[in-house]
Amino acid sequence: MGIFNTKKNKRYSYTPRFYKGEQNPFEIKHKFDDQRVTIQKTNLKGKFTNAIDDLKTNPNTLANRRVFIIIIILIAVFLWIIDFDLSIFF
User: What pTM was estimated for this model as a whole?
Assistant: First the structure.
C-alpha cells in the first residue's frame, strides 16, 4: 500500500555554474556583512555605540560630512514646517 514505505528524496550532486568553492553557494548573505560592525544584534545602547564607532573609523570623511549636512537641512525644514520659533533661545 505504501503508507509505511515513504519515498526518499533524490540527491543530486549539483554545483552552481559560477561557484568558486569558497563557501556554501546557497547561503544568502549581504554584500557588506564582513565589513560592518553595526549589524550585530545587541541592545539599543550597543547599536548606538557601534554606529558611532563605525562613523569615527570610516575613512571616507566626505561622506560623513555629506550625511551631517543632509541631517541638518532636514531638521531645518522640519522646524520650518512646524513653524518653530527660534527666539526662545535668545
Answer: 0.39
To the nearest 5 percent, what fractions of the chain are helix, strand and coil?
40, 0, 60
Nearest partner of 54 among 36, 68, 75, 72, judged by Cα: 36
- Return the amino acid letter for 7: K
Identify whether the C-beta of residue 60 lies closer than 8 Å to the C-beta of residue 54: no
User: Half-sphere exposure (CA, 13 Å, Cβ side) for 24?
Assistant: 4
- Please measure the distance between the N-terminal and C-terminal CA atoms of the chain and give it in whole angstroms: 89
Q: Angle at the Cα of 52 (from 46 to 58), degrees rounded to 5?
A: 130
DSSP string, 20-73: -SSS-TT----TTTTT-STTS---HHHHHHHHHHHHHT-S-HHHHHHHHHHHHH
Rg, the chain, Cα only: 26
How long, in residues, is the chain? Answer: 90
Mean pLDDT value of segment 40-64: 77
